[in-house]
Specification:
Its EC number is 6.1.1.6. The chain has 16 helices and 18 strands. It is α+β, with helices and mostly antiparallel strands.
Length: about 500
Amino acid sequence: MDYTENLTEQEVIRREKLKELKEKGVDPFGQKFTRTHTTIQIRDTYEAYNHDQLEEMKQEVTIAGRIMRKRDQGKAGFISIQDRDSNIQVYVRKDMIGEEAFEIFKLGDLGDIVGITGLVFRTKTDELTIKATKYTHLTKALRPLPDKWSGLQDKEEARRRRYVDLIVNEEARRIAKLRPRIIREIQNFFDSRGFIEVETPVLQPILGGAAARPFVTHHNTLDMDFYLRIATELPLKRLIVGGLEAVYEIGRLFRNEGMSAKHNPEFTTIEAYLAYSDMEGMMDLVEDTLSTVCMNVLGTYDITYGEKQISLAPGFRRVSMVDSIKEVTGVDFLEITDIEQARQIAKEKHIKVEKHHGIGHIIQSFFDEFVEPTIVQPTFVYGHPLEVSPLAKKNDENPRFTDRFELFIDAREYANAFSELNDPIDQRERFMDQLKEKELGNVEANEMDVDFVEALEYGMPPTGGLGIGIDRFIMLIANVNNIRDVLLFPHMKHK
């Protein structure tokens, strides 16, 4: 079968040009090429000079990149070359580069990758340009780029073919470069405060550290099932037991759950643990992290997100979960201690109650349904019910609740943190309660981690721990409303 039979006319023409290049002794897919400059270096260095100054300097440069525009004019032509950072115009004349090279130039298509050596000058329209003295073909593009004006209009196709999106979409390149800068600032923040960056296993034999449905895989040599980690929490707390005192990990987590504009099954978080701290200390640390990184990256605390103005200036609002529910619905769960009464109120408010739900689960459902959608500015919501917080310390004043908080911005959770449970007896009981929930059908319940309980029996100091969703934070900083657009390779359904 001839694989070329389904090619478009443009793809056939490009393959014919590929043959012509070979006939001229040119390797269509090139060799090593040494650049002296990138386009942004040329702009930064020579933008300040006028036409006469550049003519006098006769500054030679060598660049490489992709042809994004091309305009032939008989014995001369203009092309626009794009590299990673920017683009620049190149003026190509037959009498400057020679007849053979000019024939190769004429075979060039949009999308081809070429090398240019030439002199920096300004055109009559004052545009900074390179006057080519040498033209080198490097790579033949066998597929045409999307139309330069419309780009990849289909968002799904852009995410599926990110390599094309990056070529034609300046916004995609902006986000791709912004993401590592944000992550580096987060690392710098924690490094500067004495935290040790560590790595913990992605494959874990026991499900724990969060409430989530896992991906399961099998280890052939050990003949054991493993989970792709849903959290880094339990290994990191073992390191606090071991005396490292302040640790963090930026890493991928995996949750076998729904996909949406806010959720990807594979995502990035930072988890950090600090000995001798607590929930209040973690509030301060989360606030400092996000406000400092925002200022260092954007130069301001004020963010435009969609049509909303959001401030990450220090001083985030702090409110208890039950108080926030009372503010919005009038229901005071501090006064409700009977499960049947709670179920009745839930029914009246059309809140679905599962058979494994206690009052704490109902409180969480009320918050999710009625309060979370109303939050816009950064808000710490603390005092989560015991039933939904198996790894957090009980509150001293009311043991129905824990010293745990979540940070919400514009109706999305950005961070989760608490005073860590360091009582091994209490922890074992919580794990037992989780096993009971599992039996009643809660597929997200934790399993019994005997080794973790034994680690706590060696003594873990009072500790504060936090987790921040890095993808969502990047969405906020970059003003992007879909998580797939801050991931270079998001998970996608088959075509």
